[in-house]
User: Fold these one by one.
Assistant:
Number 1:
Amino acid sequence: ACVFDPWRMDLPWFDRALGRATEAGNVGLQLQACYWLSYLHYALGDQREALTWCERSLALAAEGADDRLRVQLRATYGQALAAAGRTAEALPLLETAAQTKRANRSGTRPSVGLAYTLAVKGTVLGDLARFEDAERVFDEARGLIGGAQHEVAASLEGLNAVVLLWQDRWEEAITAADRCQRIGQQVRSLFTMTMGRAAGAYGVWKAGGGETALRALIDCSDWLVPRGNRLFRSFIDGWLTDALAAQGREDPARGYAARALRRARH
């Protein structure tokens, strides 16, 4: 329930679940609890912690886990590595997980897990400036969802908007960001709605928008603070640094730049 709109106050429930599983000596439940701790930390942007819990989960999975969970663990590990900027390590894991998920598709419903894995892979390819490859991957991911108004559809469009911004394709980025924001609102996910609005605001600013777009971007930055969510926050910090520096507003630009650099060190 909290994956697409996490709060830090959710973490104690998962710690409690792991404690109970450990007391019971149930390795299967410990694995489930560790996996969800890894995913929640990923969703909160705590990539060090996410990677630690992923590694613990993979060690427990070696003692016995179904193939589907093993695949998902590798996908989550790849996603956390990608969010940590460790693209060379992330890409093989994402590719392997995607191939396995494709092979095991039933075709009876939207494949949201595969779609998100591909969206993250597309973002990594964009980060490597392999834009044509990234576009093909995003198109495949979009086809897997089939127009469903799902949280993953919002994430996919938001990440696609980021890759389009890297290419200076402002209007296309704004369109993708608007789709992200709209779906995020429909599924009541503040995080995805905010990220979509932020990417769109930066696109509007780069396309010639003025103070209104910049104000929207600042608002988006502020909205995520109470929940303690840092996933992809460096995008917003970088966009604000660019916009404020271009206006000659050096002090606030330095503040957002410093926050982005602190995030990079983490």
Number 2:
Amino acid sequence: PYVEEDQPNPLNVYAVSKLAGEYFVRNILEKYFLIRTCGLYGEAGCWGKGKNFVDTVLSLAKEGKPLRVVNDQWVTPTSAAELASRIGELIQTRHYGLYHMTNEGQCTWFEFAKTVFSLVGMSPNLSPIDSKTYAARAMRPLYSVLENKKAKEFGLTHFSHWQDALKNYLMKKGYISG
């Protein structure tokens, strides 16, 4: 997994703009918190897309649509609720700087979808594909896993494993019972 000191290598315009924003903040402020995360999902959905990955795959499966999900892009699905809690904890400190903040563990998007369906007891028409076949408009990194190195060094509460966070999310949304 990437740590905060690793050199970024943005692959598309969106990623370059995010990195430019980080550099801008670093150059104008002495005290700041920059947060990098990965595979974010939460109860409120995604502002730009309407739904997050979890809700989208469940909705498509309920419609009986076949699902093709990339199996060569590694991520750490991250609960927005857990991230918000850790950010709340972090901003109470004076440990300014750049932080990676994600749930623990890693998987491909396909494995994430497969786990979602396993937890809710569904068996949809789910197929793994590679990024080239998926042909997304923007190039995406094959490995986006981040290590919460600095958060751990400063003793912030550890994030749960992504599978545990997913299970909590599915319970909160009423997809499964406790």
Number 3:
Amino acid sequence: MDDQIGLALRRGVHRAVDELHLPISPTFLFLNGYLALALLMGLWSRLLARRVGPTNLHRSVRTFNRVMDFARWFIPLWFAVGVILLNWKATVYLALGPRLSGHDLDLETPALLVGTLPAFLAWMALWWSQFPADRAIREQHLLIQLDQAMPIHAPPEFRSYFTANLRLQLLFTIVPVLLILFTKDLAALALRPALLLLPDQYRSLIESLVMFAAAAAVFLFAPEVLRRVLDTAPLPDSPLRRRLESMCRRHNLGYRDILLWHTQGNMGNAAVMGVIPSVRYVLL
């Protein structure tokens, strides 16, 4: 039933486009929807940056947060439109061919990477779009922090701003997911000759067990990868480190290391990663 509804909706969209005689394809419309979002948000951000001042700072912050929330929600919603109505999934499978798309070898990683790339690029484009307004708001906050004798940090340059967001907002989530799928794909390739000899129900069960095992392994050892995804370094020997080590010993908290997490003053941070003490890290 859901497939029939989706097919009817896609046919309706294609019929509407044909009736308007627009020289665009569904793929062109899908990709340029993200491009239009980034350009419009960039224009709005630069206009807001010119108007931010001490008298309207709080109102500007509220406006900035509301508009950026809308833009972030638009990205997955437009992706759903692309998959359901604009044939994006079929376009990806056609571009990759039957082997890389998973039809022949049961591979998931290539199709996932290519299929989600437009949404991730749009998410990264939002950092370029929002940077002028974000920087202007930070600069106005500096005046308040100076008046209140609070510690201050200079607003980051775009390169630092982009890199920090890339590490925390995308790579921190994407890398473990890709590791799970990549491990599952490797296992599927290795076990493929044996799986082809089994009935479908047993093959599905084994594939589910392989996916579970891959997810469990990545979950246990992901901290070793994520400490490198984030910009971290061992906390130098100091009174602070010795106090933290003493506190961990008193509470029998095992860990691999205490790390300093460099965020260039972009965010307050503290975290503990890892279930197994040998790969558990404390981040400050």
